[in-house]
Amino acid sequence: MRMNHIEKTVPVWKKYSLNVSEAAEYYGIGEKRLRQIAGENEGADFILEVGCHIRFKRKLFEDYLDTASTV
Question: InterPro entries annotated for this entry (predicted)?
Answer without folding.
Answer: Tn1545/Tn916_Xis, Tn916-Xis
